[in-house]
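User: tokens in, sequence out, please.
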């Protein structure tokens, strides 16, 4: 069975995701779409030039929405990150642009007869994921945002640096909005065989500083090069592969939570059928309160996007 992925938006993030897919042979067929025809055609040619030196072959189609009909996964990477500059590092600065673009793209995806899984990177991702689901009318569990998959990775990197261990040895989650109202749910974080709150005093960990680093680490990257790409593209491709492989992996992604009435990041089991099971964490009251604040904020912004 051939594996087919679409990438919509070939800016810094989309092209990084596409390169990761091509270089690792994650898809047999790759559909690349962008309003800048010269750019997307140049990327396709560049990938084809890379293939003689790669162990994999990928068939590439450019700017053909009809080719998405039988795609397994579409990664939405369109956006205009420049709008975040001088906007107090608020991902919602992109919403006036992306809400229009995404409604147009989602209508084209629907018209193509696409019936796979959408993975949204486009910011503000929780609201954008909601818009994709609303317009395409795909089942809610088939439309997923990368959400705090990246922020949780930043938290793990920050904790690991403090303890001088591999970041993959840290377990736990950032929850809520992929934005300024998110938080690290310390009750979920385990490291070196213990809950991190037990270790914090012994090892002199400043959990507040780590939480801030995971929340604002992306801004540091953005201000250094005026975009982010590697971290979020890797998160998106992991999510796409989890779907393609039916891996049934627990991931903190933006998924629709009935009890909050919105998309937000909360761990879920992801496989070929998208979100196949939702996790129920045993959070503290403080964490539950923070999650409710985050959910309310996303819902307010979604209402404004209509």
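Assistant: Sequence out:
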């Amino acid at each position: 069975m051939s594996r087919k992925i679409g990438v919509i938006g070939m800016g810094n993030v989309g092209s990084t995701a596409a390169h990761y897919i091509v270089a690792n042979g994650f898809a047999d067929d790759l559909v690349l779409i962008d309003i800048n025809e010269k750019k997307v055609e140049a990327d396709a040619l560049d990938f084809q030039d890379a293939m003689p030196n790669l162990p994999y072959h990928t068939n590439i189609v450019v700017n053909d929405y009809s080719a998405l009909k039988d795609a397994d996964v579409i990664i939405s990477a369109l956006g205009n990150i420049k709008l975040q500059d001088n906007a107090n590092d608020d991902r919602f600065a992109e919403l006036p642009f992306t809400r229009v673009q995404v409604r147009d793209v989602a209508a084209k995806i629907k018209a193509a007869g696409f019936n796979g899984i959408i993975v949204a990177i486009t910011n503000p991702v929780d609201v954008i994921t909601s818009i994709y689901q609303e317009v395409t009318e795909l089942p809610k569990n088939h439309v997923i945002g990368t959400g705090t998959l990246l922020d949780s990775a930043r938290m793990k990197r920050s904790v690991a640096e403090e303890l001088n261990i591999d970041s993959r040895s840290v377990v736990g989650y950032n929850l809520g909005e992929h934005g300024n109202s998110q938080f690290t749910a310390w009750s979920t974080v385990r490291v070196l065989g213990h809950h991190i709150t037990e270790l914090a005093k012994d090892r002199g960990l400043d959990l507040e500083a780590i939480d801030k680093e995971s929340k604002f680490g992306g801004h540091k990257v953005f201000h250094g090069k005026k975009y982010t790409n590697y971290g979020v593209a890797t998160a998106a491709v992991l999510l796409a592969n989890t779907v393609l492989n039916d891996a049934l992996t627990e991931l903190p992604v933006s998924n629709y939570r009935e009890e909050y009435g919105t998309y937000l990041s909360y761990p879920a089991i992801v496989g070929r059928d998208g979100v196949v099971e939702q996790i129920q964490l045993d959070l503290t009251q403080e964490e539950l309160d923070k999650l409710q604040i985050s959910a309310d904020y996303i819902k307010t912004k979604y209402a404004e996007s209509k």
